[in-house]
Amino acid sequence: MFDYLIVGAGFAGAVMAERLAGAGRKVLVVDKRNHIAGNTFDYYDPAGILVHKYGPHIFHTNSKEVFDYLGQFTAWRPYEHRVLASVDGMLVPVPINLNTINELYGLRLSAGEVEDFLHSKAVKIDRVKTSEDVVLSKVGKELYEKFFRGYTKKQWDLDPSELDASVTARIPVRHNRDNRYFTDTYQAMPAQGYTKLFENMLHHPNIKVMINTDYKEVEDSIVFKKMIYTGPVDYYFDYCFGKLPYRSIEFEFQTYETEVFQSTGTINYPNEHPYTRVTEFKYLTGQHHPKTSVVYEYPKAEGDPYYPVPRPENAELYRKYQHLTAELNDVYFTGRLATYKYYNMDQVVAQSLALFKKIMAQEKETVLRPVPVPAVTNGRH
Prior knowledge:
The chain is α/β, with parallel strands linked by helices. It has helices at residues 11-22, 64-70, 98-105, 111-121, 131-156, 166-169, 194-201, 215-218, 233-236, 281-285, 312-326, 336-339, 345-368; strands at 2-7, 27-30, 42-44, 50-52, 59-61, 76-78, 83-87, 90-94, 186-190, 207-210, 224-229, 246-256, 266-268, 277-280, 292-300, 307-308, 331-333. The protein contains 13 helices and 17 strands. A seven-stranded mixed β-sheet has the order 8-7-13-14-15-12-16. A five-stranded parallel β-sheet has the order 10-2-1-11-17, covered by helices on one side. One of its GO terms (molecular function) is UDP-galactopyranose mutase activity. Residues 146-342 form the UDP-galactopyranose mutase C-terminal domain.
């Protein structure tokens, strides 16, 4: 007898498993893949270099609770990610900031002047509805064409004018010289990698793990009380309303006979190349090695589901599935795939920590709720 069957061994499922096991619950975690750690799974390639199987994952958060929680299972290596974009034959910093503008146009603007410069380029848009609107209203047509349009078209196979404003709404434009890709309070990488972090998280006598396992193949032969589901929500309901659209990525790994391949962790290629970006892992991991390994990312329509496609009709389709989830009392849906939303890693962890607290509160309420005593009439119930 298991108290919980947890579907998925990524962050959403592993956090739930660790918390529930620590609270004395017996947990079974199952995952279709042949490994734990979900999309953050890392391993040593044939050259002996630690790489991320599903593309680069850089941890960053403003939540002390999330950072300290994960810090129980890993030491942290401080790391601030920096990204350059290949534009007009130059490598310039992104997000667009004061350095980007000065390098691109050969100027020597100050912070105040660059704000005026961008304001002069911006297109006045009365009602911002699409990703194109967001960028044009921030930086104007020229920078939109150089940095955003081609990259977005490759990433989504849609023009930015066809995409929801949320895709580019959170892309910052800075008026200072801050070249960091993220500005979160806590920026670090697990010192021994993500897989080791997950191994530590799931190492508990109350946790059993089954990999290479589709939960639908075993759920009828396993006795459990409740389910935590972190897989694709449409798969849970057998695609009864149709498949939710995702974009996927093909990863091409290369090892080079040199210590350093490129000048920063990631370089974006918005325009002429078929790939969107190239990441060199040793920047992320801090590993010292005479060779180096990189990954090229080619967006595609089919494959593992990575990015929900943010269009109104897809949101409406998800809402149909969401209504079905609300009708289930013994199944909890958490994580990216189960909620059809692109979360950062720390957001997934925070979501599962919150769900654990909710479940514990519900269990306590059930235990404390008084059992009604039947009325007695004439000595008989």
